[in-house]
Input
Amino acid sequence: MSTESTTIAPGDAPASPPHRYDARLAGEIERRWQDRWAAEGTFHAPNPGEPGSEKPKAYVMDMFPYPSGAGLHVGHPLGFIGTDVLGRYLRMTGHNVLHPMGFDSFGLPAEQYAVQTGTHPRTTTEANIARYKQQLRQLGLAHDPRRSIATTDVTYYRWTQWIFLQIFESWYDTAADGARPIAELVSEFESGARPTPDGRPYGTLPEGERRALIDSYRLAYISEAPVNWCPGLGTVLANEEVTADGRSERGNYPVFRRNLKQWMMRITAYADRLAADLDRVDWPESVKAMQRNWIGRSEGARVRFPAPAGEIEVFTTRPDTLFGATYMVLAPEHPLVDRLTPAAWPEGTDERWTGGAATPAEAVAGYREAAARKSELDRQENKEKTGVFTGAFATNPVNGEEVPVFVADYVLMGYGTGAIMAVPAQDQRDWDFATAFGLPIVRTVDPGDRKGEAFTGDGPAINSANAEISLNGLGVTEAKRTIIDWLAAKGFGEGVVQYKLRDWLFSRQRYWGEPFPIVWDEHGPVGLPEDQLPVVLPDVDDYSPKTYDPDDANTEPEPPLSRAQEWVNVELDLGDGVRSYRRETNTMPQWAGSCWYYLRYLDPENSERFTGVEAEKYWIGKEPAISPVDPGGVDLYVGGVEHAVLHLLYSRFWHKVLFDLGHVTSEEPFRKLFNQGYIQAYAYTDSRGLYVPAEEVVEDDNGRFTWNGQPVNREYGKMGKSLKNVVTPDEMCDRYGADTFRLYEMYTGPMEASRPWSTRDVVGPQRFLQRVWRNLVDENTGAPRVTDVEPDADTLRALHKAIAGVREDYPALHYNTAAAKLIELNNHLTKEFPGGAPRSVAEPLVLMLAPLAPHISEELWNRLGHDATLAYESFPVADERYLVQETVEYPIQVNGKVRSRVTVPADADGAAVQAAALADEKIVAALAGAEPRKVIVVPGRLVNVVR
RNA sequence: GCCCCCGUAGCCCAAUCGGCAGAGGCAGCGGACUCAAAAUCCGCCCAGUGUGAGUUCGAGUCUCACCGGGGGCACCA
Output
């Protein structure tokens, strides 16, 4: 009864052919080549002077990641793969390519984990970096492993501290329009070339005063500035760490605006250059626009209005409307308010102006208190104009009118002078206030038919003349120029440029950041000499800052380092004998390390200098051949648009300081910037609104989504653990291999486009690689199956068309279309050469595939008989002969609609094409004997007959 | 409220200077292979470009308005 059973038990199902390119074989190939690249140092980029550096260089770089505990998901490597493809292509076209990777490893999560568990942040950070490196390695990225840096490395942050000292020991010389060493400023004061503010000789000033004077010039300085103080977290926060309703993003604690002593960086000194030099870099217009907007350059005038308590200075962009200034407003915090306020209300004060208070002082105090209590949210949502009269008047300098002075919170202390001249006729905010308070409105620009609102457009000036000057009839631009000249001549004001940009709050009350290379004596901060660097973070028992009752605004930040008393109190000899100092206990913000890492990659082992002089010139020096105003910088910097302003602006600022001081030759850090899109993902919620595993959701025939049979809601957005829709590169490498994963990410769309992740679609790229493999390798034996047959003309045309196309697409970062062209070529091989591809086509195909799918390409190249890596092989070059067609098929349109086609020799001239078109029988029929009115022949494209 | 970007087959995406709307992939359908299925292979189907005007011999592409989506800024004088 027993028979040979042909039933195959599950588990040993007939395996696919032993040498089929599947996930298992891909994995084996990938690990083997990754090991070989590492062992041979394939991607080591030589520095100037080393063999290989004579080639043209290319510096391609990613925004480095923060190594979080969650590891990478499939969205993170998109840009990394994109730069890798470009780098590999450039290497094969004869470039010396630098493609490094590092880690932005200071940061809050490791510190918070330390607070919770007592684990040193360095332990967590290093474990996370190790995991990131492993995840990145499996993707086959051609980084130079010798140049990997982390901002938390002591050998790195030593130089972050050094750069801080450069900034601290400099001042901005507006005459020279650049930073200079502070020692030169001291010399100017000492010699008397530069007088002190009150004229006393510098040498006669007490030391404390001399120090304070010099400190007030430094590019890094201590300031008592309004900051976001969060007692619940025990730290000050950057603006972007505070939510719109005035709470901390992390922990949701109240945040208070408080004046606290903090380190600031004088980025405002560079506002003009930061704005102007945007014209010299190759960046997306949107990012340039955001930076310009952030810097907020506006041209206008300062005008002084005489008042009993002193002049009130205002900034206005519309000095042409001065004759329409009918009142003034000071910000509630304006220092002049108290002096202006008289003891009693003037006779006949409008009741709407007093806020119901008996005296001006009372009204002002009440209003200030109310304004301070208002949350950011109130101010944003409630734009109704409020304010009180100070009881004082000032004099409009153009017409001698007495105008009332108000306090109102729609004027901000932080912009301009904190005071405005109000011109209700030409400013809607002033119009609203004037209407609410019954103030006069005088039109000074002819508004045409517009009534009942401010007119902010251009038009002829009216009502704008005094005994000496008349603006009447002038347009806005002309009127501005005229009145500024008059104001300057009379000493009432002058034209100025104003910026929205503020100085950069640079200190944080945290543990896991760079310590400042600063100690304090009785007079203030002292920069440590270079030989005392690095200042190493001390070990502490408690990593948390002192926290307080979240609602208690009247508390002071106490950084974690301040408790390390034996570290804080030091005896040092800084040149005048051993003395006692206290170390600065704040740490730097996370932006510090990322401000200059692109410089350290150039020369990571340098222990004498932050980066090598020659290396800087070689990799990022100015290249006048690109443009006469080329500022230098990284050739391509790829990252997300979320860093459009802060990181990129801070980095540009530091770079310009280093340039001014002669430490670098380039003027910008990043010559070309590219924002990659995001991989997004669907997430699904059940009827209770809880997220369900996205992987398990299915779509039914009606297009509805269900999970375990129950209907679920689909949302589209980020990938995240809490959304239960994370897909990791590790999973993809296991299921398909890294090459398939790389190809999928590059193939689904152009680099700049955001797009949904779709695991289902990954089989497409996998099938393609499988087909390439099968065309070149026998799936049963693993032996190459290329032939030595001469390819036919069609095949050569297909090959060279692909080469020409791919050579255009790679450098333009159009990887999706490059891949399509390779698929097309491979499809041609599949169809025409079922017995194996001709070697003369197979080899260029492999080389062209290599940037996108490097492991399989290396393996194929090897099996085709080449021992060396293909990383330095020459990229195929198209032969023009195969790109020209012998004949061209012209579509023939009649009135723009295609009616027929004719095929003519490719070298036929316009007349011949026209003759052939008009002779076509369908066209003859369409014309029905009539003469065409016009015939348009577009060479190589089409013919359009107009009847 | 202001500014910027994007809307092309069921889905992801192509389309030089304005010149035949389709390169490629996914899904779907049919077939080959298989006892069967998976995998693999071959073939096929599918939109007139968000809407409405305008310029043009000709518009996905240029202009204007509107609709939808995304992003930035938001009392910055």
Q: What stands out?
A: The domain at 298-498 of chain A is CATH 3.90.740.10 (Isoleucyl-tRNA Synthetase; domain 2). The radius of gyration of chain A is 35 Å.
